[in-house]
Amino acid sequence: MHCPELALVEARPALYERYHRRFLEAIESCIHVTTIKSIDEVECDLTRTFASKEKALEVARQIKATVRRDVGECLTSSIGIAPNWTLAKMASDMQKPDGLVVIEESDLPTRLLGLELQDFLGIGPAMEARLIASGIDTVAKLYAATKTQLRGVWGGVVGERMYARIRGEKIPEELMTHKTVGHSHVLPPQFRTEAKALAVLHRLIQKAALRLRSINHYAGNLTVFVSYKQGTWTDEIRFNETQDTLSMSKALRQLCSRRPPDVVRRVPMQVGLVLSRLIPAACSTPDLFELDQENNRARLNSAMDDLNQVFGNGTVFFGGAFGATKAAPMRIAFTRIPKPELEEIDPDRRRRLRPLK
Asked: What architecture is the 13-165 domain classified under in CATH?
């Protein structure tokens, strides 16, 4: 081994999600959480009860104390207070750990002139390169740029929004809509065979179908990819909008059957899939000639979902996922916090379940 002293610690997403809920409870006891941005970021509105700087600072210190008392003594929090979310997020990054920074409109732009371009929310390496190519290589020049210039750099209205936000204006954020549902999984060595990789894909499609039903949406497109040491195979297929697991499993089998023979013989390293063309259930039109079958499938899916949410995901499953029901455990994406009730045993629901007679 190159690093024999290296200690590997397995991630525990379920534990992190429980702490996330405890954080929310602690903050809610001090001030209402307006928006959950990620597992460790939230936004609160100060414009009414806590509008003055003194009251804002008071509630911020109360949040810190409550988190230490109710969540854990070793857990600190960095809080930024500013006219809008963009500046508040930047303020929270200015002093870590355990920071508390206030940026008022009168502080702009002086308070930010010492920062780098990539310190601004929404400016990464690629956007910084585009700004520099346009002659904007400092924060001072960013502030001096016109709304039209920034629109040109960003290639649209996002540049105008950046112009307004760095000046403290409140620009409504776009409403989050469900556009895709997907899962991927890096295959451990024992799963790097054709048959087991396919079983994991079936496990993923069953998880994705459960999530799709939990948000009450239908999907009309499936994209699948398999990564190998020698490259990646990907394909997609369209179908009538559905939230039925068996229908999506059939689409998955169709896609996998279309792989070229030389691809099938390779060693799979990672698999993944994405459901797209999502529509709310209320906008779905049932197939007139398959209505009875759809109703039967809906009852089957509902019964399986209930059992899996009571006893844990994978308690009952369709045969394609045999041998892979423990694969692809709960993971936390940066902007999506998983629902434990879709991933693990729900003890409250189990207690309420009546025994069969």
From this structure: 2-Layer Sandwich (3.30)
